[in-house]
Amino acid sequence: MNLGPHAAFIIVAYAVAMLVVVALIGWIVLDHRAQRRNLARLEAHGVTRRSEKTA
Amino acid sequence: MALIDLANPTRFLRLANRALPWLVGITGAVFVIGLYLATNAPDDYQQGATVKIMFIHVPSAWLGMFGWALMSVAALGTLVWRHPLADVAAKAAAPIGAAFTFLCLVTGSLWGRPMWGTYWVWDARLTSVLILFLMYLGVIALWRTVEDPSRAARAAAILTLVGAINLPIIKWSVDWWNTLHQPASVLKVGGPSIYATILIPLLMMALGFTLLFLTLHVAAMRNEILRRRVRTLMLMQAQTAPGSGA
Fold first, then answer.
1. pTM (predicted TM-score)
2. Within an 8 Å CB–CB cutoff, is residue A28 touching chain B?
3. Which of B35, B51, B187, B211 has the most neighbouring CB atoms within 10 Å?
4. Chain B residues close to A14, C-beta within 8 Å
């Protein structure tokens, strides 16, 4: 594939797009793990929601 | 099941857990097709291969605006109907919308330099999109500044609805003012003015980006619901701790 005389601009644009998307996905995945960990720690200490106690 | 039933956070979590693997799979498949079509799309007769930047720039621009529109609908849900998931949806959309607006600005600059001879001009389209990005940062800062989520939601909802005025300005800035940025060539009266060999990859990439936005948004909403549960449990723990007076 020949990207012509402005290949650097095209490659940098796609690289930035990939970085932003990977950063977004990484942030959301890590945040999910952190919230799950926090919930598990609280439940291990016996702190649960009322709806879960009655269930 | 009625749509209103999804307002229950527990039910939303169950649905999100079921839907996310499918969304991830479909998004990935659409991106593979979109990138294949984008890679094999012909060069533009004037812009050469730089037209390939359009396949990420235009969807990013659409989604930057879509994110704010989604937040505006959620803001109405917060202020008018006090919908349980409305402020969760608004808060989760802000960083994703900001990321796509940032991507729009960066890829636009990288496209502008070889085509216009400059990375940036203060024309109406570029400036109004920069304002959109700054407003996203403002809303994110507001969410982080106010500790009580319901108070933060109301303040952010008002700011979001005021900021929604910028959306029609972005859309029609190229018609209302004399701008270096080109007028609309896809969403316009009379249909797209792009040839099908470039339009089809663009639409496929736009579909992939939109699915990516929705997937990330559902995942971020799930995180926000869990964060609020953690906050509630920590408050309960603090109230029942010895010496708390409870």
1. 0.91
2. yes
3. B51
4. 52, 56
Task: Give B38-60 as a DSSP string.
Answer: HHHSPPBTTTBGGGGGHHHHHHH
Whether residue B139 contacts residue B92, with contact meaning beta carbons closer than 8 Å, is answered with no
Distance from CA of B17 to the nearest CA of A (A): 12
B183 vs A11: CA distance, rounded Å: 25
Q: Spell out which residues of chain B touch residue A51, defining contact as CB-CB under 8 Å.
A: 10
- Contact by Cβ (8 Å): B78, B157: yes
Helix/strand/coil percentages in chain A, nearest 5:
85, 0, 15
| Burial class of residue B218 in the structure, from the number of CB atoms within 10 Å of its CB (0-12 exposed, 13-18 middle, 19+ buried) | buried
Is the distance from CB of A42 to CB of B233 less than 8 angstroms? Answer: yes
Interface confidence, given as ipTM, is 0.88
Residue B176 vs residues B62, B124, B162, B226: alpha-carbon distances, Å: 19, 9, 21, 45
Phi, psi of B48 (to 5 degrees): 65, -145
Cα–Cα distance between B140 and B180 in angstroms, integer?
Answer: 31
Token pair 């407003």 is at which residue? B135
> Which range, of B18-32, B135-149, B185-199, averages the lowest pLDDT?
B185-199
Contact B51, A5 (CB under 8 A): no
pLDDT of residue A55: 44
Measured distance CA(B52)–CA(A3) in Å, rounded: 9
The span from the CA of B63 to the CA of B66, in Å, is 5
What confidence score (pLDDT) does residue B75 get?
95
Q: Nearest to residue B225, comparing CAs of B92, B129, B75, B110?
A: B92
Is residue A51 over pLDDT 70?
A: no
Give first-to-last CA distance, chain A, whole Å: 60
